[in-house]
Write a structure and sequence with these properties.
The complex is a heterodimer. Chain A is an all-alpha fold. Chain A is 75% helix and 0% strand. In chain A, α4 runs antiparallel to α6. By secondary structure, chain B is mainly alpha-helical. The termini of chain B are far apart. The longest helix of chain B has 18 residues. Chain B is 54% helix and 6% strand. A four-stranded parallel beta sheet of chain B has the order 2-1-3-4. A three-stranded parallel beta sheet of chain B has the order 5-6-7, sandwiched between helices. Classes of the chains: A mainly alpha, B mainly alpha. Chains A and B meet through α1, α7 and α10 of A and α2, α3, α8 and α16 of B.
Chain lengths: 219, 434
């Protein structure tokens, strides 16, 4: 197989396979959670929990009082790589081209040098968070294989993506192949690791806010 | 413990896992932020006290029973079931080093209500026979005698007699058709009898129709602390039966944190139906009376006073504004400690920890957090509204050799109560009832 044949396979059947696993995985994971259900609360609510739940969905992104000072790296590193990941994904011109090919809609991108900067900062944040996971007693204590796997599959698309743009390690086609493979790895792994938080987070925050809110507490 | 007990425990975990729990476990990213919210971690620096870690056995059960990958691994024999040894190791984590204070639930970036899960995990622990002896003893006394401290109706009667002599007021007992039914914690009956006297005086002035029920005086609920819904339901049912028998409109939850959680928030779910009466916390009622001008005070305390927010009443209970509004009526030199209101730090003895003597040393150790709060605000008198907090605070203050008196909020208000002469009071009562 030539480099181009491999690239074609990675872009085609492999991507389709990864997307199928991703969507099936997410559906299965949501169903197995959703079907557990929840018994209705019979206690007399002070007010409806619905709105307080929505408030918490947004409000929980803000650090709790005093915690930013106690754990600056986790908060700032966390914000940085999440934002950086999505900015590089959504506003990098070749990505926009790709989405346009699939959905037929496009939006303005950011200049390559800016995306470059964002990617470097995000990679640095991820590395800092990994080091912190090793060094911080609590995070080291809590961590298991799943945490390191989740880190790796988040790191690789950013890292390989950066290298594609620079052609310093491997020629363009080879590096692009690796980049797409890393994205496929992320898609396949996501539903079965803690990366599920990317969709359960909203439900968790809503429950937290709604349960506190019906008692009259803004959580 | 037998294999059968372990099986009971695991089944109880399975029963407790609902959609919120699954969502919470799915969302956890092991960021460790909950550790920084927990005084058992901040005061000891030991990572095993990280709140989410306390749920490891239940998380394992969730993973093996309710997740695609976990089920697969379990079937292939690649992940081992929860063992007896694990539950034994986790027992002190779940009971001794968690007061169900709810601070972790407030900081978790992904929104996990960790406290909600620890309350549930205790159901599994107790079903497997892994609950602390102190808490077991309290629970057995609550079921058999009617009080975790072994207080009987005879003791209550003696206290009623004593209070009547002290206040010159009649304490109504088993009055059918009264509006409000008063329940108390054993500690208020034994250690802080001034609560009952304060109520009698305040209610007399406000023209409140109230009663004590001889079948249901005890407000505390060891069942929710140990994590046994069956027992918790039985204890709630006693109060519900008493209130229904007397036909009261309201049951007044006393100055006790977990009693409020038990009767106000968990109760209807435990017995499986809504109440035909409402549960009101004494501070809610006093705040209403204040607003209506039926609770009037005179004079103020000049000491530098602060308020310790009981977790179950404020952060987990929703009585956020009332305590300070009431206290400021009589405290001219009020000062907040750092992290007031819903952010307050637990006394260290809630959630059954104070009933568990194995946890005594740890409880005193983590009191260093309260000490630093008190030191920072240079508090001279500490006011609270939970008899358990009060005992725990007194123990901690003694241990750290701090001479700060701890008083109850209701009695502090009663001390400054404006009392009207007999005749006028009578007219006001009639008006109040009309």
């Amino acid at each position: 197989m030539t480099v181009n044949e491999i690239l074609t396979w990675v872009r085609g059947p492999a991507m389709q396979f990864a997307l199928v696993i991703f969507f099936l995985g997410v559906v299965v994971r949501i169903l197995e959670m959703w079907l557990l259900g929840r018994t209705p609360d019979l206690s007399l609510a002070r007010r409806s929990g619905f709105i307080p739940g929505l408030r918490t969905v947004f409000h929980r992104s803000i650090p709790a009082p005093g915690l930013l000072q106690r754990q600056p790296l986790v908060y700032l590193g966390g914000y940085t790589f999440h934002l950086g990941f999505f900015i590089s994904l959504i506003f990098f011109a070749p990505h926009i081209q790709l989405f346009y090919g699939v959905w037929g809609i496009r939006w303005p991108g950011l200049p390559a040098y800016l995306i470059d900067f964002v990617a470097v900062v995000s990679i640095a944040a991820l590395v800092a968070l990994l080091v912190h996971r090793f060094v911080n007693p609590v995070r080291r204590y809590l961590s298991n294989g799943g945490d390191y796997l989740a880190w790796l599959v988040t790191f690789l698309p950013l890292f390989t993506g950066y290298l594609v743009a620079h052609e310093s390690v491997l020629p363009y086609a080879q590096m692009l192949t690796l980049h797409i493979l890393s994205v496929e790895l992320l898609l396949i792994v996501l539903p079965f690791t803690k990366l599920t938080h990317s969709f359960t987070l909203f439900l968790s925050r809503w429950y937290n806010g709604a349960m506190a809110g019906r008692k009259g507490v803004a959580s | 413990m037998s294999a059968k007990a372990l099986e009971h425990g695991i089944n109880a975990f399975v029963e407790q896992i609902d959609r919120p729990v699954a969502s919470f476990f799915n969302s956890c990213v092991h960021c460790g932020m909950c550790a920084d919210a927990c005084l058992f971690y901040t005061e000891t620096g030991d990572p095993k006290y990280t709140p989410i870690h306390k749920l490891e056995p239940m998380r394992k059960v969730w993973k093996q029973k309710f997740t695609f990958w976990g089920k697969l691994m379990y079937k292939l024999g690649l992940s081992k079931p929860v063992t007896e040894a694990e539950l034994e190791e986790w027992e002190p984590l779940v009971y001794d080093s968690c007061t169900l204070c709810g601070r972790c639930s407030l900081v978790c970036p992904v929104g996990n209500d960790i406290t909600y899960m620890i309350r549930k995990a205790r159901e599994g622990m107790v079903a497997a026979g892994h609950a602390p002896d102190g808490l077991k003893g309290a629970t057995i006394r609550a079921v058999e005698i009617g009080s975790p401290m072994g207080v009987t109706w005879k003791t209550v009667q003696a206290q009623i007699k004593h209070t009547q002599e002290n206040t010159g007021l009649q304490i109504p007992v088993d009055q059918k058709g009264a509006d409000y039914m008063v329940i108390m914690s054993s500690m208020e009956i034994v250690n802080f009898p001034e609560y009952l006297g304060s109520l009698a005086r305040i209610f007399k002035e406000a023209g409140i129709s109230w009663t004590i029920c001889s079948d249901a005086t005890e407000a505390t609920n060891s069942g929710i602390q140990i994590g046994s819904s069956d027992i918790a339901a039985q204890l709630v049912q006693r109060i519900v039966d008493g209130a229904e028998k007397l036909g009261v409109k309201y049951v007044i939850s006393p100055e006790c944190g977990h009693a409020y959680t038990a009767i106000r928030w968990e109760g209807p779910n435990l017995i499986g139906r809504p109440y035909p009466f409402e549960v009101i916390h004494i501070l809610e009622l006093l705040d209403q009376l204040r607003e209506q001008g039926r609770l009037r005070t005179e004079g103020t305390e000049t000491a530098r006073m602060s308020f310790h927010d009981p977790c179950q009443l404020v952060r987990r209970g929703g009585l956020v504004e009332q305590p300070r509004r009431l206290l400021k009526m009589v405290a001219s030199n009020y000062v907040d400690m750092p992290d007031p209101g819903i952010w307050n730090w637990c006394c260290g003895g809630g959630g059954g920890v104070s009933a568990n003597d194995r946890a005594d040393a740890l409880q005193l150790r983590v009191f260093s957090r309260k000490k630093s709060q008190l030191d920072t605000a240079r508090v001279e008198t500490l006011v609270t509204c939970c008899a358990n907090c009060r005992i725990v605070l007194e123990d901690g203050l003694e241990h750290y050799q701090m001479a700060i008196p701890v008083v109850g909020l209701t009695e502090t208000l009663a001390k400054h109560l404006v009392t009207t002469p007999q005749e006028t009071a009578k007219t006001e009562t009639e008006q109040g009832e009309g």
